[in-house]
Amino acid sequence: MPTIANAYIANSATSALQPGLIERSDPGEFDIRIAIKFCGICHSDIHTARGDWANVNFPIVVGHEISGIVEAVGAKVTRHAVGDRVGVGCFVDSCRNCVNCLAGEEQHCLSGSTSTYNSVGRDGRSTAGGYSNSIVVDENYVLRIPEGISLEAAAPLLCAGITMYSPLRNWGAGPGKRVAIIGMGGLGHMGVKIATALGAQVTVLSQSLRKQEDALRFGAAACHATSDPATFARHKGYFDLIINTVSADIDIDQYLSLLALNGTLVIVGLPSKPLTQRAWSLASFRRNLAGSKMGGIRQTQEMLDFCAAHGLGAEVEVIPASEIDEAFDRVIDSAVRYRFVIDAATF
């Protein structure tokens, strides 16, 4: 028999989120039921709940930065036990058989991974996310949260953390590498922390210097204002790796000019308009323009272990569920330092 969970539900693109009840299936043989403790607010939640993206199936429960405690397990579960500290990120299933899934890159499943919300599971039911006090997930898509990270600081790592860790690792950030992070929001602040812990020399490129003190505290060597033309003149051909975390439309050619020989600009923020850049910006200095999303399950666990070993966690503001819509507005206005996390006890 399904169980009933408390949740905050977006019934339409124009309505405020409302408290309500949703059904969660009982754990199957390989499933675990998680008592959610915290869920981070990602910009993707806002785009979905407010209908900014196409093909949103209302009513919907969003949220894919989930941390909690295992409260029940299926008969054949071996990876997790009741009482374990666990997390769930952006997807909860994949085909498991394609070349990408077999390589541990389930986020790039050729059949399409099953998103934590606004997707359809193997049971034919729509998936519902972490703005709830309970969720049931196959054990293969659940992460272990090490004791070195609090559950509230760990929740945003399941999206923001891995979204930054993945390109930093995949493009070789480390000692001797000059890395720039564009933007100092929920993604960017984790990028600074992780890149610094990897041993890279980190620079923050932000519209203004109002977060400079935080950037330096998180480990950045420097912070420069992109509103100042001198920033681009002084750093031409300087960086080995630039990661763009902002969703705003920016002058890609201007940022490509900051790359050294064979340098790469990686896009993780998702602007609303198509990207444009001159071919010469890439041909010059053999520069590369790439994109990245979250990592697979294997790399996400690696990221959590890395963050625990280096004492890293997200900078969070914990809020009750009743303040979600206000938090959405503050995220849009960049008025949070640096990630809202919902206390699931208030659902």
TrEMBL record:
Stored CDD domains: CAD1
MF (Gene Ontology): alcohol dehydrogenase (NADP+) activity; zinc ion binding
Cofactor(s) this protein requires: Zn(2+)
Domain Enoyl reductase (ER) intervals: 12-342
Enzyme Commission number(s) of this protein: 1.1.1.2
Catalytic reactions of this protein: a primary alcohol + NADP(+) = an aldehyde + NADPH + H(+)
Protein origin, superkingdom: Bacteria
SUPFAM superfamilies: GroES-like, NAD(P)-binding Rossmann-fold domains
Pfam families: ADH_N (PF08240), ADH_zinc_N (PF00107)
Keywords assigned by UniProt, alphabetized: Metal-binding, Oxidoreductase, Zinc
Listed InterPro entries: ADH-like_C, ADH-like_N, ADH_Zn_CS, CAD-like, ER, GroES-like_sf, NAD(P)-bd_dom_sf
The family this protein is said to belong to: Belongs to the zinc-containing alcohol dehydrogenase family.
Protein name: alcohol dehydrogenase (NADP(+))
Species in which this protein is naturally found: Arthrobacter bambusae
